[in-house]
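#struct-help
A.M.: can someone run this one for me? Single chain, 90 residues.
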Amino acid sequence: MQLMATGLYPGAADFQVIHRRGERAVSFNGIVYHNYMLFVEVKAPENTSGPRKNGQSQKQIDFEDHSKAMGLGYHIVRSLYEFKQVIENL
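D.P.: on it. Structure tokens below:
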């Protein structure tokens, strides 16, 4: 577990994207945020193993569930095209 020794969170997504929403603020627990953060997990196109049959480990599933519960975005992409779609739709 070399990554854990460096302080990385187990199951954390491959990319964290922070986007300035401008006038489209987000409210969470009574706090208004003008920035939006989402997580992007990259998986190989053919990877359909794991508990949800989408290639995620249980720790990645836990991280996704926690992120969504906090009102943050989480996406799984399998190609550069899918990643571009996520970014373009912010």
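A.M.: thanks! The CA atoms of residues 42 and 77 lie 5 Å apart.
D.P.: also worth noting: The chain has three helices and five strands.
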